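Any chance you could type out a protein's amino acid sequence plus the matching C-alpha cells because I've never seen that pairing?

——
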Amino acid sequence: MSVTIASNLEKINSLENAKRYARGILRTGGKKTCTELGRSLKKSHDAVQRDLNAIARHPEEVRTHFLSEAVKKTKKWRQRLIIIDHTGLHKKYAKAIEGVSRQHLGADGIGNGISLGCTVISDGESVLPLDAIAWKKGHESKVKTTINGAIGFVQKLNADALLADAHFASVESMQKCIKTGTNFVFRFHANRTIEVDDFEGKIAVKKHPAFRFKGNQRHIVQEVLWHGLSLRIIKLRVERKFGGWRIIFLVTNASCKKALRYAKMYRIRWKIEVFFRTMKQRFGLTDCRARILAKQEAHCLSALLSYLESS
C-alpha cells in the first residue's frame, strides 16, 4: 500500500520536478546539462538528476499541463493550426545513448542523433508547444506516432487544420485524418502518380497536363484520386525571397472552394522550423547527456516547458 501511495505522490509531483528543471534551463546561460543546471539552481548534480528521473517516469503529467495551457491561451485565437515535424538532436560523440542513430541533422549534415517528433499549435504569430516524442528503432513508426498524437490535439483543441511537410503525406496518414474528420494540408511530392477526371491513366503530378500553367497563372486546384483517396492538389507558383520563382505542390482534403485558403494556411508551417532553432539555441534542446532515451525525452519536455513559461 505504501509503495502505491509513494508512486502516486511521485506522479503528482512530476510536474513540479519539470517546472524546477525548466527554471534551471531558463537561468543557465551555457550548456543546459545537469551540472550547469545544478549550479544555476544552487543544487547538486544528483538533485537535478532526481528531477529528471521523476519526469522520465511520469511524462504524462507534463503533457497534460501543455494541453491545459493551450486550452487557456488559445481561447481567443481566430485560428488554431496544429503543426508537426521531426528534428534531429545532435549526439556526435555519444553512440552509447539509447535511441541514437545515423540521420540528417540539418546544417550538421549526416551524423549521430536522436529523432524528436514535435507538435505545436500556432495562430500564425504565436507558437505554443504541445508534445515531444523521442523515437528509436523498434518503436511504432515516427510518422504514425506523431500523426496519431496530432490528430488527438486537433480534436481536443478544435483546431482548424493539421499542417505538415511531405514526409507525413502518406496514404495511411491521410486515411486517418479523413476517418477522424481532421482537415489537413501537406506538402506533396511532385513525382507521385495521380489520376484526374477527364484524363486517361496515371502520371506523375508534375507531368500531368491538368497542372500546366497558362500565361501568368499562379495556382491550379484539381480534384484527384490517389490510392483510392479523393483529394485536392494545389500547384503554386511562389516568388522566391531573392528573386525568381519556385513551384510547390500541396495536398488537402478540403473542398476545391476552400483549397486556396488552406494553401495560405500552409505558410504558417515554417513557424515550427523557427521554433526548433529557438529551442536548440536558447533552451538547450540538444544538451542532455543522459544515456536513457526516456531521460532524453524528459529533458526535451522540460525544455518545451521553459519555452512555454517564457512566452
